[in-house]
């Protein structure tokens, strides 16, 4: 057995014949009683030893029995039986031992064998101390060796006690049967009573369902009324708050009348309070829109670099101490993200502002990584953390986790609820994990999206540049349905003149335009601050391979002239929006 260091020898004996088996049984009872096992456990140990001893005597081996006390990991009485020779461990005696004891471990080597019989102490019973073990040894030494007659008397006494115990249990069983019969009669009566009540209840349930339908309608109307109230009150509040914020900013601009330090402090306080109130009002209004189902995503290509720079600048004033750092990790190389940029900004701003509010030292970190066709935005902080029982409740409307920093943190308790609603609208999910005292990690999981997700809204002015009347006519037939006004130019110089005169919202530019090539015209457009963000589609001949590098560098989409159709034109417009956003950033 393992844990030999935790075992203490108590006594030992040798078994050669049947008379020794009687002594082994008696010794087992004595040792079990001496170490503190109760009467039933004493009988179990003695019986198991007696049956195993007989099995070994029948196989004509001389056996040494060593009684030991195991103190770790749990107290137990262990009897090690060892012999020289080979024996089998099948038979009634071995089965009895396995049934009565907690463990029987057998090891047979080439010329020797051992078996360890283990009986655990009952729960709550402690093993004897070192002093107690010495007492056990003295007690066992004083008991001496018994004989077969003494053991037979002991067995008879055990049998009488067992019979008395069985008789007592028989009487208890009879009483239990009588009580059960009485209970059965009561159950039958109760069943009849319950059947009658159930029939009456079913009648009431029908009426209750009708009442629930009425209550459901009332509840839905109340929810709609609450949403309308939020929306209306938010609109009513936003106008005067905007005025207050605007006026305070006018007072603080460099050209305004000079202010004293105290006046400037008061104006800044008014501006900060007004800005906070305006943010809360906007949150209420957005939540009302989300609940009413009127909030719809407007997918567009997202410039994450630009967005992260804006977030860093907007949230830096929220850092209240030099001990906290806002870290925005560099973006890895990844496909373009197409989603609603406004909703994404609101989600990330909510998550980052929460992290800054409840972080006293360390950092609030924003990172993003690509996983298949999805992006995972991770906002992790080293703040005070959120208890486990609050992890689901933080996404409930108006719920704020009680903590020592909550008093000084402005908010309505709508932030995470609103953020999760927006994540769902965008086809994603928002999850949270947190450990009190260590920090919180919130993960926003969003689909990457494709250019097909970008809705084509009406184009104000479209400029078509092509020297061939036939090609220009084909383009105009497709663009007329998308643009409010279509302007045509037959060469590159005319195109630049038209674009600088009235800024177009979209340009279709033939790669082989007379006077100036399409690439030359596009290069000039990208150098003009007023035209740098205008989407451009380069229309090419059959082989567009040579134009791909120029289009990618200058932020334009490509369209093959022979493939002009309603579908390809719309696809090219979407790709042009993606390309110009990626390049202009």
From TrEMBL:
Major location category of this protein:
membrane
Q: Which CDD domains match?
A: HATPase_EvgS-ArcB-TorS-like (cd16922), HisKA (cd00082), REC (cd00156)
The catalysed reaction is: ATP + protein L-histidine = ADP + protein N-phospho-L-histidine
Q: Which UniProt keywords apply?
A: Coiled coil, Kinase, Phosphoprotein, Transferase, Two-component regulatory system
The residue ranges of the Response regulatory domain are 461-577
A GO CC term attached to the entry: plasma membrane
Any one Gene Ontology MF annotation carried by this entry is: phosphorelay sensor kinase activity
| Residue(s) carrying 4-aspartylphosphate | 510
Entry's InterPro entries? Answer: CheY-like_superfamily, HATPase_C_sf, HATPase_dom, His_kinase_dom, HisK_dim/P_dom, HisK_dim/P_sf, Sensor_HK_Regulatory, Sig_transdc_His_kin-like_C
Q: Where in the cell is it found?
A: Cell membrane
Q: Which Pfam families match?
A: HATPase_c, HisKA, Response_reg
The EC category is: transferase
Coiled-coil region(s): 142-197
Q: Which residue range or ranges hold the Histidine kinase domain?
A: 232-450
EC identifiers of the protein: 2.7.13.3
Report what the protein is called. Answer: histidine kinase
Q: Name its species.
A: Umezawaea tangerina
């Amino acid at each position: 057995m393992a844990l030999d260091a935790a075992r203490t020898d108590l006594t030992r004996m040798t078994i050669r014949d049947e008379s020794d088996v009687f002594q082994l049984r008696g010794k087992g009872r004595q040792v079990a009683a001496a170490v503190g096992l109760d009467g039933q456990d004493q009988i179990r140990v003695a019986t198991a030893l007696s049956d195993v001893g007989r099995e070994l005597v029948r196989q004509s081996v001389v056996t040494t029995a060593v009684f030991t006390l195991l103190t770790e990991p749990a107290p137990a009485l262990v009897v090690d039986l060892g012999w020289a020779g080979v024996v089998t461990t099948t038979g009634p005696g071995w089965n009895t031992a396995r049934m009565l004891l907690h463990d029987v471990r057998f090891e047979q080597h080439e010329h020797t064998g051992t078996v360890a019989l283990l009986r655990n102490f009952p729960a709550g019973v402690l093993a004897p101390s070192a002093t107690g073990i010495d007492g056990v040894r003295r007690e066992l030494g004083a008991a001496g060796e018994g004989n077969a007659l003494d053991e037979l008397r002991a067995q008879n006494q055990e049998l009488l006690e067992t019979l008395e115990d069985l008789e007592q249990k028989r009487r208890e069983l009879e009483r239990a049967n009588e009580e059960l019969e009485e209970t059965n009669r009561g159950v039958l009566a109760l069943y009849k009573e319950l059947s009658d009540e159930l029939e009456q209840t079913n009648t009431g349930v029908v009426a209750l369902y009708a009442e629930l339908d009425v209550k459901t309608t009332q509840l839905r109307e109340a929810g709609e009324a609450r949403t309308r109230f939020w929306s209306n009150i938010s609109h009513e509040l936003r106008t005067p708050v905007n005025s207050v914020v605007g006026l305070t900013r006018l007072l603080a601009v460099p050209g305004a009348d000079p202010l004293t330090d105290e006046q400037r402090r008061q104006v800044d306080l008014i501006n900060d309070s007004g800005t906070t109130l305006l943010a809360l009002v906007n949150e209420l209004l957005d939540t009302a829109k989300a609940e009413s189902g009127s909030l719809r995503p407007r997918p567009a290509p997202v410039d994450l670099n630009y967005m992260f720079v804006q977030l860093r600048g907007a949230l830096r004033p929220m850092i209240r101490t030099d001990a906290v750092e806002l870290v925005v990790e560099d973006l890895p190389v990844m496909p373009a993200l197409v989603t609603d940029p406004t909703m994404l900004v609101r989600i990330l701003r909510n998550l980052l502002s929460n992290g800054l509010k409840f972080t006293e030292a360390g950092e609030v970190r924003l990172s993003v990584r690509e996983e298949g066709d999805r992006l995972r935005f991770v906002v992790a902080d080293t703040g005070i953390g959120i208890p486990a029982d609050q992890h689901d409740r933080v996404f409930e409307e108006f719920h704020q986790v009680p903590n020592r920093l909550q008093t000084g943190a402005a908010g309505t308790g709508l932030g995470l609820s609103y953020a999760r609603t927006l994540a769902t609208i965008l086809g994603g999910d928002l999850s949270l994990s947190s450990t009190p005292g260590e920090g919180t990690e919130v993960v926003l999981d969003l689909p990457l999206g494709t250019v097909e997700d970008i809705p084509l809204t009406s184009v104000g002015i479209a400029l078509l540049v092509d020297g061939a009347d036939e090609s220009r006519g084909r383009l105009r037939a497709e663009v007329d349905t998308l643009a409010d006004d279509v302007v045509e130019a037959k060469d590159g110089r005319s195109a630049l003149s038209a674009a600088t005169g009235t800024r177009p919202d979209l340009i279709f530019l033939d790669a082989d335009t007379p006077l100036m090539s399409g690439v030359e015209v596009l290069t000039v457009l990208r150098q003009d601050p007023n035209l740098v963000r205008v989407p451009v589609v380069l229309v090419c001949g059959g082989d567009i391979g040579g134009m791909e590098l120029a289009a990618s560098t200058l932020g334009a989409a490509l369209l093959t002239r022979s493939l002009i159709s309603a579908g390809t034109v719309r696809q090219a417009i979407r790709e042009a929006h993606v390309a110009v956003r990626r390049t202009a950033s």
